[in-house]
Amino acid sequence: MNSDRPGAQAFAAAADAVRAAVFRSDLVVASVPAPQGLAPHALALSADVRPGDHGDSPYGTGRLILLHDPSEPDAWAGAWRIVAFAQAPLEPEIGTDPLLADVTWSWLVDALDSREAPYHSASGTATKILSKGFGGLAAEGDGAQIELRASWTPQGGFRTHIEAWAELVCMLAGLPPGSEDIAVFGARRPT
């Protein structure tokens, strides 16, 4: 990162705060390459809930990008933006619940509020996906998953925002706060 670019020092301090975030032991969080062209400064993380031997998680996954643009884009209403994604498989019966999308969004808001992570200009979608296998995939049967795509403008406290996102990823995977080291008897989708 070129330290002469506007905002480089502020972004470096924010990146240090993100790296200081504390995650539960059954969530594996790693730095990944950030998409190019979204902002002058970007940092990206991936998260997998209780990943298997090959790195994939049958329980849930997430991605987060911290963006910084000192020109303060109008859509952000600030110099910072967090873009987050979380996805988890569900039992098909849960996937048909008409309130599932509303509950999913409320979990994000609750996670931010419980961590006292101030924000504004939030937006996003919660998508319920129902599937049925046919032909060679018929043995997989019915499936469902929930996806949340969200973005918001953080007002400081970057570490608390990252920890709130991690909490959301675990919540979608069926692991609420305090469930660390609790046995999970299988993924909610066929393997």
UniProtKB/TrEMBL annotation:
InterPro entries: DUF3000. Pfam families: DUF3000 (PF11452). It comes from the Bacteria. This is DUF3000 domain-containing protein.
